[in-house]
Write a structure and sequence with these properties.
single chain, TPR_rpt, mainly alpha, three-stranded antiparallel sheet
Length: about 325
């Protein structure tokens, strides 16, 4: 019997079999790549058509840009110019055209990422998440796309999905402990559990994100609880606006100057604004404090406190700036 199969032990026959297998694998890979590219192109065309119907760019200009010999990179640059000037509708339209012209994986990844960012800035949060998901299909480990996808889920209050994205970033050794704690706190804040359970869970998160102490203070005030029951007292710099407006007094040496400025004690004041406030009121000038809120990262200014900057998305960057102003007399306002 071995006589009939002796050729299988021939080294040349083994090499022929090996090269045949390699050739079959190469052919299969080639056709798989061709069909994958075709399938990806069809998927992109469906994606573009889904959003292009709502484009504000005239059809004749869309056709012109699509037919002209302009590559996707040049169109991406043009769209970026419109995005930086605040013309998001034109930027979106041009990115969609660029996406149709893109042939390389890197080009598609770049366009999807920037298109998602424009949708996010323009306030189309749901669409932005769809775009970032498409970007991640092309490059699953793209940190920028994952970060913005998590931000989109957070804005949509899809906290579980946001936490999944943060876990994916954590696996790539990106520091996201603060963001995880903040997202869990937002989820907890919107839950239906009772007050004591919320406070207990907030306290467990406070070591990861410093501003959770402010959330706890807000929760106590919203539920008409005695703020002196708070075991971990918040930093004055993180809540001076709340404590100034609130009628209750929070025990602790850190807060004494603030309450002295409000006339509740006679402790000497070192802070300039608080000292100016107390001096003005002592001389009958009827002064008060107003507060402005500035992002320490991008310097954007807001009328209300924020945990995450709406412009640069930096977490915990809010600086509370007190200003002494003359208190308005509502009785003297003419209606």
């Amino acid at each position: 019997m071995d006589f009939f199969f002796i050729e299988y032990r021939d080294p040349i026959f083994g090499l022929i079999v090996l090269f045949s297998v390699l050739l079959l694998v190469a052919i299969f890979s080639y056709f798989w790549g061709v069909f994958s590219l075709k399938d990806q192109k069809n998927s992109i065309d469906k994606f573009v058509n889904k959003f292009q119907s709502q484009s504000n760019l005239d059809q004749k200009y869309q056709d012109m840009l699509l037919n002209l010999d302009i590559d996707s990179n040049s169109l991406g640059v043009l769209a970026g110019i419109f995005a930086r000037s605040g013309d998001f509708n034109k930027a979106i339209s041009i990115y969609l055209i660029a996406l149709k012209k893109a042939t390389k994986k890197s080009e598609k990844e770049f366009i999807f990422l920037n298109l998602g960012k424009v949708y996010l800035k323009a306030g189309f949060i749901q669409r932005s998440t769809e775009v970032f998901l498409e970007s991640i299909k092309i490059s699953p480990k793209n940190i920028d796309a994952l970060s913005h996808l998590g931000l989109g889920f957070e804005k949509l209050r899809m906290y579980d999905q946001s936490l999944e994205v943060l876990d994916a970033l954590s696996e790539q050794e990106i520091e996201v402990a603060e963001q995880i704690a903040y997202t869990k706190a937002l989820k907890l804040k919107n839950s239906d559990i009772n007050f004591d359970q919320k406070i207990a869970k907030f306290k467990k998160l406070s070591s990861e994100f410093k501003l959770i102490d402010r959330m706890i203070l807000e929760l106590y005030i919203a539920n008409n609880k005695d703020i002196n029951e708070i075991k971990s007292k918040p930093n004055l710099n993180h809540c001076i606006d709340i404590l100034y407006i609130n009628d209750g007094v929070l025990d602790g040496d850190e807060y004494m100057e603030l309450y002295s400025a409000k006339g509740k004690n006679d402790i000497p004041i070192n802070d300039f604004n608080l000292k100016l406030l107390k001096t003005a009121n002592a001389n009958g000038l009827n002064a008060t404090l107003s507060f402005s809120y500035i992002c320490s990262e991008c310097k954007s200014s807001y009328p209300l406190f924020f945990y995450r900057c709406n412009h640069c998305a930096r977490l915990g960057s809010c600086a509370i700036i007190p200003n002494v102003i003359k208190e308005s007399d509502e009785d003297s306002i003419a209606f």
